[in-house]
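Issue 218. Parser rejects a valid record. Input:
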Amino acid sequence: MSAITKAPERRPDPYPTRLSEERWLPREDKTVWSQWRPDAPLMAQQADQFDRDGFLVLKDLFTEEEVKALMAESAALRGGERSLINDSVVTEPGSDEVRTIFKLPEQSPLFDRLACDRRLAGIVSFLLGDDVYVHQSRLNYKPGFTGKEFYWHSDFETWHAEDGMPRMRAISASLLLTDNDALNGPLMLMPGSHKTFIACAGETPEDNHKSSLKKQEVGVPSHEALTKLSSEYGVTAATGKAGTLVLFDCNTMHGSNGNITPFARSNAFFVFNAMSNQLVEPFGAKKPRPDFLAQRGEAKPVEVITGKLV
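Output the parser choked on:
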């Protein structure tokens, strides 16, 4: 008699979302997964700050020469000087201006090198206590006068529901490629909000990513939830000169205002996921999003490189 092999049972989801009504759930995962040690790529105080606030702003990690090279490469990608992968570009709502270019390592050797740098991947690998791979990468561009807002959201809510990211063991690294100040729509975060998961109401529409990349309307908290979160944790802007690095936990509530100044805002954005946290089937959608939004299949760990980019 032949044996019947059963598929492994899927564990109960600790973060159910896209429900009939909004729910608040406690975080069940660590924020910092490593014990600090003297050879760590962060000071102990910085690791503690990330654990407490869910984000960290690091300045003066990159040389002026490195920043200029990255800015020039960014302009070349946006300006049509590079051959870009099909369907990797998202434009602003109502215009043809570039809003986002995805799959940066595949589009540019310089950004591929940046993704492997100890100042990004090395720090994140330490915080997550694991080897990491690039879950998603993109060049964000918010043009002057017409750059639209990014509404408040937790990235993990979308990555969990629509990509199948099991646990909160991922970090975003945003390297500023223009000066970001209080006026030109900088990233805003709620410090400490990563400790609570807001399970959002509403079902995931078919091919939701096609509209959500321009304007996210599903998987966002209610006004009541955002009011309560901001009252408890406050709101702070991650500002800095070009070359500033902003790291934030996958569940930190964040967003940004529109940009009506003449001064564009741009950043290179890498999402690093722990190798132990690779994607499964989506938890709140009928099918996964395209692979330019979420690396699927067998992931390769980033080989961390030390030294100057250029």
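Fixed in the parser; the record now loads. The chain has one domain: 23-277.
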